[in-house]
Amino acid sequence: MKSQNYHTSIYVNATTQQAFDAINNVTGWWTENLEGNSRQLNDEFSVRFGEVHYSKQKLTEFIPAKKVVWLVTDSRLNFVSDQQEWNNTSIIFDITEKDGQVQVTFTHEGLAPEVECYKDCSNAWSGYIQGSLKNLIDTGKGNPTKKETAGSVLEK
What we know:
There is one protein chain. This protein has a single domain (6-148), classed as START domain (Alpha-D-Glucose-1,6-Bisphosphate, Chain A, domain 4), CATH 3.30.530. It contains three helices and seven strands; from the N terminus they run βααββββββα. By secondary structure, the protein is an alpha+beta fold. A seven-stranded antiparallel β-sheet has the order 1-7-6-5-4-3-2. The longest helix is centred in the C-terminal third of the chain and has 22 residues, at 118-139. The radius of gyration is 15 Å and the shape is globular.
């Protein structure tokens, strides 16, 4: 049986470069709990959601106005039995122009229905991509997890 990686797409009112820039502004849409850099090839950054989730990403593909890929090099998900489920998974953002609109397709390669965190992680990704990232691109204002509420994201 072939795995079905989690993916979702959004259409935004922006240029491909504006979408690309917003994606790389991780603290503007995902979480303010970021250490490191997320702005160029080979940058590495880590994010924390309280004691619930930690992950470290490395930018392995960085094509302006087209594509960004993060390789998860380390992770700790404290709500599943295999706390390192995200290790060696890839988080992919593809940006294309389609029918006069800009489409951002998000894929978390390795996050599949047979993975224990799929339900919680895919629900969280849906909120961040379809809500916060889309809003950041469309309006300039995302809804990242704030430092003071970082632990509550996956506990809802």
